[in-house]
Amino acid sequence: MVHTDAGVTALFVRARPIGPVPAGAAARAGAVLAATLVVTGCAAGTTQAADGVGLAVPEPRTTAVAPQKAGPPSPVPSPVPSPVPSEVVGPVGDRAAGPAAGLDLTKHSASDPASPWVVVNKRTPLDPIDYEPELTVVRGYLVRPDAAPDLTALLDAADADGVHLTLRSAYRAYPKQAAVYDGWVARLGDEQADAVSARPGHSEHQTGIAVDVGSSTRPECDFEGCFVATVEGRWVAEHAVEHGFLVRYAPGNSTVTGYGPESWHLRWVGRELAAHLRDTGRTTLEEVFDVPGGGYAR
Ligand SMILES: [Zn+2]
To answer: Cα 197 to the chain's mean position, in Å?
Structure first.
């Protein structure tokens, strides 16, 4: 299981350069999906350490096309951070911000996994839980086709500003997440597994419209709290919304999202909703769409 081994190694070795998906990979999407690497990682396996810095494992890309056996990973037992407080937190906002917001919040579904506005979190899994999107490739990573134009525009705009974002993670398939999560459960038990790995069906990465970006100037900060202070992290914080992306897990909204701050995790929602969030001062989809958040219900 090259992926899990590599993922665990990355816990200590840090990120290594990742090659693009080879030409033709999109056409082999089904096979690639089966082999898409999912270790612990942003939103799929990130938790919040006591210092508020997420512990996540960069996931190496794969070029394999053969279906992988779903063997358990080799979890590294320590250090295991404390989980994000698992209290159940209900939505704190109104569903409709009123006519002044200027956006029809029923325009797209918040529950259809194929919607640009789908809300998935620890309380609200994807339905169907093993949802598989159509996929295309952007700079070597698998994403849903409707998110691809804005993602490309985001990356191109950064380049134009002399800021070179890297993509570190995008789509993750349900079977791989399930295998990885089950491996952690076997090793650590349910509670600690939840602290280091998302349950399958609960990761935004399974939608194909969430990506993790990295720093070309300080790659050691990829998937780390210090990403927010990198030139790339600062650029994303300022400009992601212009291209339809939300920095989903922000300081101060952990009890709603269920995840600690992840300044590298970008969720595509489209430019209209991104602007709506900015203009209304909201930071979470849970608040906008009145969807429960917080920790797992169990
Ligand atoms: Zn992520």
So the answer is: 12
